[in-house]
């Protein structure tokens, strides 16, 4: 690169983006909050702008002043809490970024449902409700069971299946709070769940992978927390084509014009239906799975897109699969953990991490953050990789005292 360096602004990033930018010779500025200003978020940034929160009145004056001194070519974020601020900054400065209205539609699940319904696409009965009574009236019209989830929720937190009116009040634990929290109530969809990993450039969507999702399942609050993911998904070609076609059309309807996206889809008896979509990469190390299978580094391509550098979204066929499986020991105080050292001996295991040890209190799984580590492996296809992950997880034995269980509000 010659002349002045390409410079981009990253909002509340993790180190992956700043690392890739440094490797590409792209200069980065970071804006983040005091609470998140750890080294893992700052990475190799030339300058870090720290604010109390990412609201417009805090961020825009600071980044506008910085932009006058050292102009940015783009503003991006891949963290959920940074998506809307990044889009607003890009719009205010007139630089490259994801369309602010598209981000708002994908962050707000009620707006997403409204936009898809207006287009006659992936129609799912849904209504924003502020109380259990209002949600029950919706369920009486459309039938139980229903799904209740926060309009702007992340990490599968507070997502609950409600089978009848007696359980509805449990889905609205903060109904008396002011202001009342916003919940979306949707008809319950049956069928396996997948996610579609895409990258969009100038409105053209490239599908890089379809990921098979493994959920904890059951009737408890943990039912919709992911237990694991496998790439590529084991799908018949007609189902894969239908999922891809629906995702591409939905991204267009929602106005997504650039950057990575992660779209969750259920294949119901009536065909695929959108669960939700995000203008960022998937969590749970899904970008790592995608890179191992396709050769495409979503973090690097995001930096290239933001900086206006040449991109490569063509998958390199490797004839392999990759998977991740999370540890979810029973809640209680761990008295011992055995077998973790055996995992490294398994061929195909790429890495593993156990985040609990003897003496730790394991909470009930209510959201993604409650899981206790993972195993990531490769195999001849996604299912083989997941089978290896399952084998590795099975080597670890947790012993605990269930009499002492972490107590935390359902909405923590």
How are the elements arranged and paired?
Layout lengths: L6 E5 L3 H10 L2 E7 L5 H4 L4 E5 L4 H14 L4 E3 L6 H11 L6 H8 L1 H10 L7 E4 L2 H11 L3 E5 L9 E3 L2 H4 L14 E5 L5 E9 L2 E12 L10 E6 L5 H18 L4 E10 L2 E8 L7 H9 L3 H10 L13 E6 L5 E7 L10 E6 L6 E2 L10 E7 L2 H13 L2 E5 L11
Parallel strand pairs: 1-2, 1-4, 2-3
Antiparallel strand pairs: 5-8, 6-7, 6-8, 9-10, 9-12, 10-11, 11-14, 12-13, 14-18, 15-17, 15-19, 16-18
Pfam families: ATP-grasp_4 (PF13535), ATPgrasp_N (PF18130), LAL_C2 (PF18603)
Protein name: ATP-grasp domain-containing protein
Organism: Dactylosporangium fulvum
Overview of the structural elements:
With 412 residues, the chain is an alpha+beta fold. It folds into 4 domains: 91 residues, Rossmann fold (3-Layer(aba) Sandwich), CATH 3.40.50; 63 residues, Dna Ligase, domain 1; 129 residues, D-amino Acid Aminotransferase, Chain A, domain 1, CATH 3.30.470; 92 residues, ATP-grasp fold, B domain (D-amino Acid Aminotransferase, Chain A, domain 1, 2-Layer Sandwich). It is built from 12 helices and 19 strands. The protein has an 8-stranded antiparallel β-sheet with strand order 13-12-9-10-11-14-18-16, sandwiched between helices. It is globular. The relative contact order is 0.11. InterPro entries: ATP-dep_AA_Ligase, ATP-grasp, BL00235/CARNS1_N, LAL_C2. Keywords: ATP-binding, Ligase, Nucleotide-binding.
């Amino acid at each position: 690169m010659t002349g002045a360096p390409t410079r981009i602004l990253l909002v509340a990033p993790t180190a992956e983006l700043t690392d890739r930018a440094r490797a590409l010779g792209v200069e980065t500025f970071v804006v983040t909050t005091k609470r998140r200003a750890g080294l893992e978020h700052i990475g190799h940034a030339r300058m870090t702008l720290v604010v109390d929160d990412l609201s417009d009145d805090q961020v825009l004056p600071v980044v506008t002043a910085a932009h006058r001194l050292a102009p940015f070519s783009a503003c991006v974020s891949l963290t959920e809490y940074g998506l809307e601020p990044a889009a607003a900054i890009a719009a205010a400065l007139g630089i490259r970024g994801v369309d602010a209205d598209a981000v708002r539609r994908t962050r707000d699940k009620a707006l997403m449902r409204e936009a898809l319904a207006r287009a006659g696409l992936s129609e799912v009965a849904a209504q924003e409700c502020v109380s259990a009574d209002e949600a029950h009236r919706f369920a009486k019209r459309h039938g139980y069971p229903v799904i209740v989830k926060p309009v702007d929720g992340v990490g599968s937190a507070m997502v609950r299946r409600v089978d009848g009116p007696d359980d509805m009040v449990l889905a609205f634990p903060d109904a008396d709070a002011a202001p009342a929290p916003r919940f979306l109530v949707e008809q319950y969809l049956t069928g396996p769940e997948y996610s579609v990993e895409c990258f969009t450039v100038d409105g053209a969507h490239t599908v890089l992978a379809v990921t098979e999702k493994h959920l904890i399942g059951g009737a408890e609050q943990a039912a919709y927390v992911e237990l694991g993911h496998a790439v590529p998904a084991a799908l018949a070609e007609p189902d894969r084509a239908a999922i891809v076609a629906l995702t591409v059309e939905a991204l267009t309807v929602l106005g997504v014009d650039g950057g990575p996206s992660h779209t969750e889809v259920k294949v119901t008896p009536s065909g695929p239906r959108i669960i939700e979509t995000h203008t960022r990469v998937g969590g749970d190390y899904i970008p790592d799975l995608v890179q191992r299978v396709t050769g495409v580094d979503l973090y690097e391509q995001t930096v290239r897109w933001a900086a206006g550098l040449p991109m490569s979204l063509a998958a390199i066929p490797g004839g392999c699969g990759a998977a991740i499986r999370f540890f979810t020991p029973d809640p209680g105080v761990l008295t011992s953990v055995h077998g973790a050292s055996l995992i490294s001996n398994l061929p195909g295991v790429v890495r593993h991490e156990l985040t609990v040890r003897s003496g730790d209190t394991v909470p009930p799984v209510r959201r993604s953050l409650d899981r206790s580590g993972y195993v990531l492996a490769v195999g001849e296809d996604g299912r083989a990789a997941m089978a290896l992950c399952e084998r590795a997880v099975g080597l670890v034995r947790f012993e605990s005292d269930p009499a002492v269980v972490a107590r935390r509000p359902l909405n923590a």
